Write a sequence for this structure.
């Protein structure tokens, strides 16, 4: 398994090529330019246990998003997946492709906060540098939100869904709720959330060091996900008198890539 010391090296010329590709939006060039970075790493995930083999509960979640616009079908996720599977403590990833902007990202589960921190400070900045784009990474304490997540049929804790998700939603509210179990009003909010059209699952999130509450949701359709972020969620944030972030992602576009990363949203 790779260590943080074995960071992928990215040359200036390769970074420049990939930035040109993003500007030109040429499908073939996207694949060639991005693949060149990750195939050069020469790593293998053959010895990486899947979550089904590894019964550990997640201790940390990582949310990532790259500030780019590429149709997901043009993302060389097979090469990227092989590299990510080698990262210490990695358990699973659900790939994300932004509705409307085609941003790329993911929600990851890790076996410890320490390994999540290594990922966001070691590996992921190199991935963003390879694309030549800005990035967002956030770490969340999984232990803090386990009870609230289980109550929302979280797929990270033995949740069950009838059918596959059509969309994912990420939310975060700009309030400080620590400790989460008593400061965040999840017991009041969960019954209302369960009544929202099309909701299938939610994993609650609690920001490491920041205490910001949020969630990662699965919905049956993009239409119901959009109704949730446009109609319902603003009322929740207003009740907390706080600013907020919402993003909607196309689950169908990333299904094959997510399955390859043992996403808990698929059998």
């Amino acid at each position: 398994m790779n260590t943080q010391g074995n960071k992928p090296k990215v040359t200036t010329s390769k970074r420049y090529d990939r930035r040109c590709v993003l500007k030109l939006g040429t499908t073939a060039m996207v694949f060639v330019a991005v693949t060149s970075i990750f195939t050069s790493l020469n790593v293998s995930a053959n010895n990486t246990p899947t979550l089904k083999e590894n019964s550990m509960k997640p201790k940390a979640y990582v949310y990532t998003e790259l500030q780019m616009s590429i149709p997901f079908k043009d993302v060389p996720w097979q090469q990227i997946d092989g590299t990510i599977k080698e990262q210490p403590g990695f358990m699973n990833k659900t790939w994300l492709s932004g509705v409307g902007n085609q941003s790329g990202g993911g929600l990851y589960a890790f076996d410890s906060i320490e390994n999540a921190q290594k990922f966001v400070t070691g590996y992921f900045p190199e991935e963003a540098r390879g694309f030549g784009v800005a990035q967002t990474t956030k770490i969340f304490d999984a232990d803090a939100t386990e009870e609230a997540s289980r109550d929302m049929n979280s797929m990270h804790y033995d949740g069950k869904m009838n059918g596959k998700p059509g969309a994912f939603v990420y939310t975060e509210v700009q309030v400080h709720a620590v400790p989460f179990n008593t400061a965040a009003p999840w017991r009041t909010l969960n019954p209302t959330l369960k009544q929202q059209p099309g909701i299938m699952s939610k994993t609650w999130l609690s920001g490491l060091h920041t205490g910001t509450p949020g969630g990662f949701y699965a919905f049956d359709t993009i239409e119901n996900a959009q109704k949730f972020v446009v109609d319902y969620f603003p009322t929740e944030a207003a009740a907390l008198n706080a600013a907020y972030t919402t993003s909607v992602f196309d689950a169908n576009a990333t299904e094959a890539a997510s399955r390859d990363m043992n996403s808990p949203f698929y059998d």
